[in-house]
Amino acid sequence: MKENPIGIFDSGVGGLTVLKELTGLMPNENYLYFGDTARIPYGEKTTEQLTAYVRGILEWYKSQNVKAVVMACNTSSATVYESIKDDYNFPVFSLIEPTAEYISYVSAEKIGLLATTATVTSKAYTKAIRKISPSKEVYETACPGLVEIIESNKADTSEAKKLVIKYVVPLLQKGAEKIILGCTHYPFLGRMIQDVANDKEILIDPAKHLAEKVAETLMHSDLISDGEKGSVRFYASSNAPMFVEAGRSFYPDINEAMELEIGEVTKVIK
Ligand code: DGL
Q1: Of 50, 67, 210, 239, whose CB count within 10 A is highest?
Q2: Given the DSSP bridges, would you call strands 110-115 and 92-93 parallel, antiparallel or unpaired?
Q3: Could you tell me the domains of the chain?
Q4: Three-state SS for 58?
Q5: Residues 6+ apart with CB under 8 A from 190
Q6: Which backbone phi and psi does 226 adopt, to 5 degrees?
């Protein structure tokens, strides 16, 4: 069981920001990374659609005998996680709870959130943060367009900068002292967001807190691999070369990805 792989998925390259944290903490694990590029952006889908996608992905991971699955996607963490988390015989991890827990130790009272439309509509971050820290204010901003820019490898363009200014400045005007990167794609724009905010300490990246949670849980369950060398296999549901190209700017070790279609699974598997 210890040597079984860890599944990690996102709608595309965003989850690589989580993979980087995981491989940093647990370099000897074998990871199976799936980017659902055929159905991106998740942030513009309904909870029903997302539930079907995620179930399909989890079924595939089950067939690969994973020991855990990491949702490296805030949108599915916000909309699907609660309803599926207990349905599998391996642990499934979400980005939101570890981040809310971390925020309870942060002195800032005004917290901004940049996320997808579906994540913002769910209000999952506000609920999770206020459950442990009722005095904190959370300002949620939906950022349509950013994911597409990152997937098409245009993170370093004036088009990206315009959107970043549009979404970040209103949060600063509201007095946000910290800004959560509430979509795993957004760390690709981390430097740009810091520059717009003129504050190098303003960002909270949930990836780091999720990775710590995964490592801690696997350690407590005695599930950390004893292997001497880890591996990562990459899969994308469409346009694998574009996935590799866009991913490389954040995860330089990515060199190839296999195409893998995962169909919609709607039945509930117990
Ligand atoms: N990277 C994902 C997230 O964290 C999904 C982005 C999308 O496909 O809209 O929300």
Answers
A1: 210
A2: unpaired
A3: 6-94+208-268 (3.40.50.1860), 97-206 (3.40.50.1860)
A4: helix
A5: 181, 203, 205
A6: -90, 0
pLDDT single digits (tens) 38-79: 999 999 999 999 999 999 999 999 999 999 999 999 999 999
Four-CA torsion 25, 27, 28, 29, nearest 10 degrees: 80
Residue 44 CA, closest ligand 1 atom number = 9
| Residue 39 alpha carbon to ligand 1 centre in Å | 11
E strand residue ranges, the chain: 6-10, 30-35, 68-71, 92-93, 110-115, 137-142, 178-182, 203-204, 231-236, 258-259
**Residues 16, 21, 23, 29: what is their CA dihedral angle, to the nearest 10 degrees?**
-100
**Cα→Cα distances 117→43, 74, 132, Å:** 5, 11, 24
Instruction: Quote the ligand 1 centre to 242 CA distance (angstroms).
Output: 17
Q: How far apart are CA 95 and CA 9, in angstroms?
A: 12
